[in-house]
Amino acid sequence: MAKHNNNNNGKAQEKDEKKLGITVKKSDNFSEWYTQLCAEQGADLVDTRYGVAGFVVHKPWAFKILRGIYDLLDKEIEEDGHEPLLFPTVIPEENLLKEEEHAGFAPDVFWITHGGNTKLERKLALRPTGETAFYPMYGLWIRSHNDLPFKRFQSRITVFRNEATTRPFLRGREFMFYETHDVFATHKEAMKQIDTDMKIMNEVAYETLKIPFIFFKRPKWDKFLGADDTYASDTIMPDGKRNQCSSTHDLGQNFAKVYDVTFKDKDGKLKYGYQTCFGPGIYRLMAALIAIHGDDNGLILPTAVTPIHIVIIPITFSKKPELTEKVLNKCKQVKELIEKSCFGIKVKLDDEDKSPGYKYNKWELMGVPLRIEIGPREADGDEVTIVNRISREKEKLNLKNIEKELNTHINDFEVMLKKRADEYFKGNTKDADSLEKVKKIIEEHRGFIKVPWCSTEKDGEKCAETLKAETMGGVVSGIKFESPEKPKKDQKCVICGKEAKHIVYVAKSY
Ligand SMILES: [Zn+2]
Asked: How close is the Cα of 492 to the center of ligand 1, in Å?
């Protein structure tokens, strides 16, 4: 091996000097900013060089954040009475295609056709989503009204779809998934669950992750295959496109009739159950976190999912080893003090042999909310320097009062994060009462556009096609679920000019 060493020197050096930093501004080129932030030079979230297009490797920092999102959802979903279970990854072809509309998924499905060299008697689908895996089993399990409501969920799994274009956390051929599948005796109870699903999204996405969104009832032509209606939460990305962060489907009795999900009711009669399924988008929430909170210096992570709350950085001098030792000792003391007195706060001491400047840069890229800097002058006293990732302002932190002071700093950070996101989102909805105005807004600002619309049923679809063509991709997001707005008396559909029946939201989509 020794003789190769010379040849490898160049490469070894290149590998050692990993360059950090994003070279474009988020406001100048969002797409490139996002790509760089996801890559090794940024927050090192994914590696796209796995060798199969659309399949990415999740690096530790990303995977820890994703686990955090799963934890938040699991807590809410279990508290709402759902039980966890785990289904096989494969679905028999005949089950996948049994529900006529749902069979529309088939062109996007990856199929397993062989076991070793032997051709399988029946093809197996790599699950594109869970309905057709769950419901044949529900048909076997559910017997009487006593079994209802029947609420189950599956977490921390991936699903597969043969997407044409892929982008980390926005569209992948294998992506992280979350699904609940519920059965109720009445449609009223099913609708109540949809309301609960929205409240769970509000708690997790908005209150905790600080991602603002609007919950929509989708138009009929844009519903989930096999559903009666689809309800979805959409946020807006900095490039002005809508990002669907969750969907809940009112499945009615469609799947129940196909997979025989029946129960014996109190009156002794056999009835079909009413079903709903809720899918918070793990990936889409991650994409929203990156895009909405991040800035030109990197990620900014909400405290609920950040792998580290505080990083301690020693300000050391390579030419003064006695000072370095003193500073490092103080850093260790402060770390222990935080661990001992501040329950739930995750702290890291970065004692790697790199310059303080490099470390500031690195942890800002990673989005850690707070950093503590300790230099020789602070090594003797009771005060150290603390820096907030959003404001990047330096303040003094009194070690004698550390629990109270750190909690205040974390709280201030959360308030700032929410305020920033709210302000960003507020400026992203505009009104338009003509196609010209819609076009202009889509060209200049994008975001949500509120427009008068003829119908959200089939006959509104033609107008939606025209809108999409005229605006190069504008789609109807739907009617706001909570407090839907009504058009004014003489308002006309922006496309066909017929009397407007609804106010719908329009946006560009990924
Ligand atoms: Zn119309």
From this structure: 8
Does the pLDDT value for residue 106 go beyond 70?
Answer: yes
Protein residues near ligand 1, an ion, with CB under 5 A:
454, 463, 493, 495-496
429-509: CATH topology: Translation Initiation Factor IF3 (3.30.110)
Rounded to the nearest 5 degrees, what angle is found at the Cα of 271, between the Cα atoms of 269 and 274? 150
Q: Residue count of the chain, please give it.
A: 510
Concatenating the DSSP letter of every residue in 208-236 gives: IT----EEEEPPGGGS-TT-SEEEEEEEE
Residues 310-412, CATH architecture: 3-Layer(aba) Sandwich (3.40)
pLDDT in tens, 144-154: 999 999 999 99
129-144: pLDDT as tens digits: 999 999 999 999 999 9
| CA of 214 relative to ligand 1 center, distance in Å | 23
- CA 397 to chain centroid, in Å, comes to 34
Cα-to-centroid distance, 461 and ligand 1 (Å): 8
pTM metric for this prediction: 0.94
Q: Each residue of 242-298: pLDDT tens digit?
A: 999 999 999 999 999 999 999 999 999 999 999 999 999 999 999 999 999 999 999
* 3-state secondary structure labels for all residues of 106-164: HHHCEEEEEECCEEEEEEEEECCCCHHHHHHHHHHHCCEHHHCCEEEEEEEEEEECCCC
User: By percentage, how much of the chain surpasses pLDDT 90?
Assistant: 89
